[in-house]
Design brief:
This protein folds into two domains: 1-50; 52-86, no CATH class. The protein starts with 10 loop residues before the first helix and ends with a strand. Helix 1 packs antiparallel against helix 2 (27-44). The chain is mainly alpha-helical and 86 residues long. It has helices at residues 11-22, 27-44, and strands at 63-64, 81-82. The protein is elongated, with a radius of gyration of 20 Å.
């Protein structure tokens, strides 16, 4: 799911994620599953965050369709248009 660049995999973590997303509707059971997921990630620490990018995205008012997404400022560049009439 998402940005799993190092291809981290834990079978139990996968089961818990699927259970939370599609399974049990009991809030207490879902909270317990989420806590177990957090404990697995804490224990195994598949990522070590060394830094976080500080960034901002901006566009001229002439750019139509600009809709930045956090961390992916150019994700929808194919839908941008420039209106030179303004």
């Amino acid at each position: 799911y998402g940005f799993n660049f190092p291809s981290y995999y834990n079978a139990r973590l996968q089961e818990l994620g699927e259970e939370i997303a599609t399974g049990n509707c009991d809030p207490e059971a879902r909270i317990a599953a989420a806590h177990e997921m957090q404990q697995i990630l804490y224990d195994e620490q598949p990522y070590l965050w060394l830094y976080a990018l500080d960034s901002a995205y901006a566009a001229s008012p002439n750019v139509q369709g600009f809709d930045p997404f956090p961390g992916l400022g150019q994700w929808n560049v194919d839908s941008w248009n420039v209106n030179n009439e303004q």
